[in-house]
Design a protein that fits this description.
Nucleotidyltransferase, domain 5, 411 residues, 6-stranded mixed β-sheet, alpha/beta, Dna Ligase, domain 1, 5-stranded mixed β-sheet, 11 helices
């Protein structure tokens, strides 16, 4: 393997932080984290670019730091995509088996997936992923890999993820301007699931909930496949602004207070605990009860989980989550989030930290790094050989490369 090919880079461009993670493929096929770069996010809101120059500078900073810690030059990245513009739906494709002796070949599978993705999209949207869920050969359903089976008719169920082409192109343009190519774009929930979910959880039924700065993204897995994706437009930044308004303190101080003393469940806080709060406009800092802070955070945490539960119920998956819910993303680090989620969902809840990597694993052992580490793990599993993507490349220029990786991904 060429030296360049040994290194994979995941870039998670979020609302509150930008994380670049460099992974190295080891001799035995394992994956080591060898570089980490972090920068405060600028010019990005809810997964969408709102200030190009600021976003480019922040991305550059994160990449430079990752290059420095890894000691390698970064020329291409696997970019995570999220935001309210990302929508997913399930589709079905049916084809006749073409071979003489009616044996299903990879070509038949490819045609079935093509048939499933041939849906009319509104203008300005493009397909990001087509993820096979299961196959049906004649009347036999629930098949994982139909290649080699005999039948006259092949059906495939897929989950199609689409995004706004302009939003995707803007974020790709930012990365290109920062001096690197985009090897692939990956849905952030899909990336995070690589790092934090176990195969058993995906098989039994689980919801991955990624509480980011601007949005809360979620994905539902069952029978080993992705069945539903969605976004709730409330995230960790809403907690910060609630604190700033409720305690009359500047936003940067509100963020520090949230990280240092925040707790989303007021019953977990002792009556006599206090904290110092900076005031606005040069007034003296005040001392307040920590319980007041919790009473500000708790309604927002409950709102996020109620909105999520409404979405899950609307999609009809409330009875499918036998493994419960895995919370990840920076927002999952707030004390009391798991306890509130348990009360609202009445399901087992755990915090998801990246697992299955070596090297600097202890430095990324936090829910905040789930997506960035997951991007590297996703790239490693599919070891993508696609041509780098420039801004403005349409969805269909990637189809051939995507279908190549589908087979690596599922068989």
């Amino acid at each position: 393997m060429a030296r360049k090919e040994r290194y994979l880079v995941g870039l998670d461009v979020g609302t509150s932080k930008i994380a670049a993670i460099v992974g190295e493929i080891m001799e035995g096929g394992g994956l080591d984290i060898i570089g980490i770069g972090l920068a405060d996010s600028r010019g990005i809101r809810r997964g969408v670019v709102v200030n190009l120059e600021a976003a480019v500078d922040a991305i550059k900073k994160a990449l430079e730091e990752a290059e420095l810690t890894a000691g390698v030059e970064i020329d291409s990245v696997h970019l995570g995509l999220s935001g309210a513009h990302v929508k997913g739906f399930n589709s079905r494709g049916v084809v006749a088996v073409a071979g003489k002796n009616r044996e299903v070949t990879r070509e038949d599978v490819r045609r079935a997936i093509d048939a499933a993705r041939a849906v009319a999209l509104p203008s300005g949207r493009e397909i990001m992923h087509v993820l096979p869920q299961d196959f049906v050969v004649d009347d036999q359903d629930g098949i994982g890999n139909p290649v080699g089976m005999t039948g006259a008719r092949l059906e495939v169920n897929v989950h199609v993820v689409t995004g706004a082409a302009s939003s995707t192109q803007n974020i790709v343009a930012c990365v290109n301007r920062a001096g690197v190519a985009v090897a692939d774009t990956v849905l952030e929930q899909l990336a995070a699931s690589e790092a934090v979910l176990t195969p058993d959880e995906k098989e039994l039924g689980v919801a991955l909930v990624d509480i980011g700065g601007g949005t809360t993204d979620f994905a539902i897995f069952e029978r080993g496949s992705l069945w539903h994706t969605g976004v709730v437009a409330v995230g960790g930044d809403h907690f910060t602004s609630d604190i700033a308004v409720g305690l009359r303190t500047p936003i940067p101080d509100a963020e520090k207070i949230k990280r240092r003393a925040g707790c989303a469940l007021s019953s977990m806080v002792e009556e006599d605990e206090t904290l110092e709060v900076a005031s606005v406009g040069g007034r003296k800092p005040r001392v307040m009860a920590r319980r007041i802070l919790s009473e500000i955070l708790q309604p927002r945490a409950e709102e996020i989980f109620h909105l999520l539960w409404d979405e899950i119920r609307r999609a009809g998956y409330e009875k499918s989550l036998h493994s419960g819910i895995v919370l990840t993303g920076g927002g999952a680090m707030l004390d009391g989030m798991g306890e509130i989620a348990e009360q609202i969902f009445d399901l087992p809840i755990r915090r998801g930290c990246p697992a299955g990597v070596g090297g600097l694993a202890d430095h990324v052992n936090s829910p905040a790094f789930a997506t960035a580490v997951g991007l590297v793990m996703y790239a490693h599993r599919n070891h993508v050989t696609e041509t780098p993507r420039a801004a403005g490349a349409g969805a269909f220029s990637k189809v051939a490369g995507r279908l190549r990786t589908l087979f690596k991904e599922f068989f």
